[in-house]
Amino acid sequence: MKITDISWIHSGRAVYVKIETDKDITGYGEATNFAPRSVIGLIEEIRPYLLGEDPRRIEHLWQESFRRLFARGGPITGSALAGIDMALWDIKGKELDTPVYELLGGLARTRVRLYGHVTGHSAEEIAANAKRLADRGVTAIRYRGFHDMDAKGLHDHQRAVRQQVEYTEAIRSAVGDDVDLIIECHGRYDPDHAVQLARQVAEFNPLYIEDPVRHENPQAFRYLRSHTGIPLATGERGHSKWDFRELVVDGLVDYVRPDICWAAGFTEMKKIAALAEVYYVNLVPHNTQGPLGSAASLHASLAISNVALMEAPFAGRDPDVDVVSPWPVVEDGYALPPTGPGLGVEFHEDAVAPPAEPRRQHPVLRALDGSVRDW
User: Fold this and answer.
1) Which residues, 6+ apart, have CB-to-CB distance to 33 below 8 Å?
2) What's the whole-number average pLDDT of the chain?
3) Would the CATH topology of 3-99 be identical to that of 102-341?
4) Catalytic residue among 157, 186, 193, 299
5) How many CB atoms lie within 10 A of CB 203?
6) Would the pLDDT of 271 be above 80?
7) What is the pLDDT of residue 139?
8) Catalytic residue among 117, 155, 286, 299
9) Which of residues 224 and 152 earns the better pLDDT score?
């Protein structure tokens, strides 16, 4: 079997990769990132390396794609490789008429626990939304608060801490003690305010605090470790096994959170998981991109032994996606294994909308003094 073409499909922020073969087997992957045109550009650069190659040599083609790039690493490389890698695994599964998770070693578990998202502009609103999600069987809920400040283009650490504590208390009261709470910080805080938050929410027993500080300096988590016993999680902005080394080897976090659309696909995610397993660190895959990414994340979560739960914005909600079918079956807050070959879904190219113009602008946040804050 040979690769005859590699192309991409762009829809808004979404980037899908299509790999065709001379055996009439087509594979699809997702390379969605916050810089879609940059990802597309790198896919075009990698394309000549792979044409005419055997798509079944996935590890070889991953190395070929990565190591021929003299300037490599980071989110663009991670996403371009992710889309290509997913499509190659999709092809192999379709050729062998088996789901990708079987090719990754089979089911490490028979279902995957999901966590859902809630938002709200007040403690009452977010607590009510959390209660509705819990009533639909979701057993873990993630929230970040400060949405009202986002709407004003503002982020103030002290106000955000107060609001997240208020929201945490309200949500815990609404859903009871049997639902796990995940406090998402989006990398907003400096270390001192992250410590303040951790100390004030400890009584509500959160499962973990997610991305309390920015990701550039992993050693900031050492300071947090010394000031709180609450579990810590980070890693959605990690793009290769090397990005996770310091976090894992130095024991800085309890959970790492690679995104299969950003961290170079199945091939690299398995290696990140193996590194984490050595140090008894669990994975909670980040998953907020698109439907092919969700399908791939589910296959990885089913096959990787140290996955604790998986992010799923769709948990507790009725699916409204028409780009793929069928959508994952969810029962009692757990996703069940897909049964179809490859990624287990059919990708509907005709349902992909063309990219909207003008280009998407990322939110701009300022502190009270007008200085730049992270989104």
Assistant:
1) 13, 15, 39, 75, 76, 78, 79, 261, 262, 289
2) 94
3) no
4) 186
5) 11
6) yes
7) 96
8) 286
9) 224
